[in-house]
Every structure is written in structure tokens, then in C-alpha cells.
Amino acid sequence: MNAYLFYLIYVAAVAVFSILLLRRESDRPNRLEPPHVLEAALLRGGLGAVVETVIFDLHLRNLIELKVDSRSKQIVVLVSSEKKPALSQLEHDAIKAFEDIQGQGGTIKRARRQMSDSVKEIETAMQTDGWWKRPARWKWGLTILSPGLIVFGSLRFIDAYEGGVQVALALTVPIFAVLLRRVIVHEMTGPTARGSRLLQRFRAEKSDDPNLLWQVALHGTQKLKELPEYRLFCFMTRAIPYGRL
Asked: 163: buried, middle or exposed (CB in 10 Å: 19+, 13-18, 0-12)?
């Protein structure tokens, strides 16, 4: 068998082992009460879904107004001075993130960092219940160990080739290492398998729930685009890149 094929099998084995190790669930008692609205939003789409749900909630409570900025062509959130004290810190951060994600890389990073701090308490509670992944120190060690194994394994196979072919194949080693590290980092955050099952169950149970905030948390605002009173809101926010968070 081709030596490089053996190497590809080796790379695949390292990747699969790392992912299975990260996805292993520890036994934690299930919380008896159902998740809160923002917990459901976090399970659905991470920080972006939380921002989307909070903005809709503020709109529902008539605490904000959305306008199109004539210069930047972006959607801005207007809050009257008398209503600002009624907003929580999370709501203030969600409004800022809503505007920042319409910008470029620097503002998106700032919004992501700010929202991560805002939902830290929610994430911690969900980690305790086994709904959200807990980035333990040993998992961070995998971001070094697994790519290192790929590089080490390449030394066992690279001598099977010579000249330009050897150089060309050697160039794929750092590519595999970087890709695997990105996969591992991605696997270290987000809902666990238990959390994903909980989300699917709640989507089924609340498919006909009249509570619009729950519908947005579980499905997004575009779920409401056929409702006349929310058609303008859905139209204005349809292109907001919540997924960039």
C-alpha cells in the first residue's frame, strides 16, 4: 500500500481519537427545571442567537427602536434616555454587539469578547448541567498534542519519497496540523450532545407555543416573518450576521 495512504490513515485516526475524547460526556445530574430562554438561544446558535433573542425581547417590550443609518447603511438601535436605566448589563452588551457585528473584524472581535463575558454565568450553569462543553485544561493540551502527533507521524513516512515529491508531501503536514487544531478548538465549545438533544426536544414540544420570545430563541426571528406586526422587524434584521459571533 502507498506509504502516504498509511499516513492519511494515521492522521484520520489521530483526528477521530481526539474528537471522541473531547465529546466524551461525564455523568452529571440533569436539572429538573427546563432551560431559560437565553439558555435555549445559546444552545441554538451561540452568542449570535443570544443577541438576536435579546434584541427581539427589547423590541417586544418597546424599549428600543431600529433605524437605518443614512451614512453607514447599517441598522442602529435607539434607546431613549428614560428607558436606558431599565436595561440590564447583558441587554446593553447585546445592543452594542448587534451594531458591532455589522462592522469589520475588529468590532466583531470586541463584540464576541464582550458577549462572552456577559453570558459567562449562563454558560457556567449550563456546564454544570452538562448542556454546554467545559474547556478543561487537559483539553487545551490536545490543541498541542494532536497536531504534534501528526508532525511526529510524518517523520515515519516522509522517507518513503524523494526529491520534489517528498517536499510537496511535506507541505501538507502543517496543513493537516493546523486544520486539526482548528477542529479541536471548535469542539471545545458549544452545546454537548446532551444539550443538542435537549434543544431538539424543546423545539418539538414548543412548536405551537404562543410565546413569541421562545419561538425566536428556538428558531430565530425569521420564524415570525409571516406575522404582519413583526414583518418590518424581520425585514430590517434579515441580513444581520448573527453567525459572525
From this structure: exposed
Q: Is the Cα dihedral 150, 155, 158, 160 positive or negative? A: negative
In sequence order, the β-bridge partners of residue 108 are none
Per residue in 24-78, pLDDT (tens digit) is 765 555 565 678 999 999 999 999 999 999 999 999 999 999 998 888 888 999 9
Amino acid identity, residue 185? V
Which residues of the chain fall below pLDDT 70? 1-4, 25-33, 105, 165
| Grid-cell match 428614560, residue found | 82
Q: Write the DSSP string, 89-149.
A: HHHHHHHHHHHHTTS-HHHHHHHHHHHHHHTHHHHHHHHHTTSB----HHHHHHHHHHHHH
Determine the length of the chain. Answer: 245
Q: How far is CA 44 from CA 6, 27, 38, in A?
A: 39, 23, 10
CA distance to 58, 59, 127, 130, 154, per residue, from 27 (Å): 37, 40, 12, 8, 37
Is the separation of the CB atoms in 67 and 76 below 8 Å?
A: yes
Sign of CA dihedral 243, 45, 12, 137: positive
Q: How far apart are the first and last CA of the chain?
A: 44
